[in-house]
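Annotated sample (chain length 243).
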Amino acid sequence: MADRLQKVMARAGVASRRKSESIIASGRVTVNKKVVTELGTKVKVSDSVEVDGLPIGKERKVYFLLYKPRRIISSASDEKKRKTVVDFFEGIPERIYPVGRLDYDTSGLILLTNDGELDNRLTHPKYEVEKTYVAKVEGIPTNDELKQLRLGIKINGKKTSPAKTNVLETDPKKKTSVVQLTIHEGKNHEVKNLFKAIKHPVQKLKRESYAFLNLRGLQSGEFRPLKKYEVEKLYEITDNKHK
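Output written by the structure step:
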């Protein structure tokens, strides 16, 4: 039985399926010592697959929840040699990578794994996994302005999915507010763009929860492994969304 190369790579913990496709296209993968760049390539269990000269193996799947500090890159590596989320896991032998991303100056909850299937489910928009953020914004948004976010607002010609909003506090003297926002889309700078669209730019941003997971018990820079039932629940949530 043969499987597509990017699927085999994702299953082995190299990277997510989509990231594996770009790794293949860049000529970093060999099958039986021959460079392969075609995405439809199928490989058998008996084939020897290497990435950057290193054979891929069948790693055990691991899952972690990290409280990402600000000014950390949400990537497995960085060309500018800046600290990445993976640098917090130096003692972990598996090749893990972040599920989705958080902006450089955004703190909060991010998941890391070597499970390509779960990564795909959690990052693909069709599964609609909810993420909750707390944003400190300029000014005090009116209910009408927040209603625009709750109904969906046009950004770059495309209407956003409805968001849930909740004003946590306001500071009339400093002219700032703290607003909780729940969305299921994962576009780049999504939360910042939403608040910018209603003319209340974000000053500070933190992701507080991802589906049912939260940061309880963790300080900035700390992480914990996911419990077995938590992994099962993430699969269950995305199974239900896909039906």
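Annotation: The chain has three domains: 2-55, 63-120+216-242, 130-210.
Annotation: The chain has a mean pLDDT of 91.
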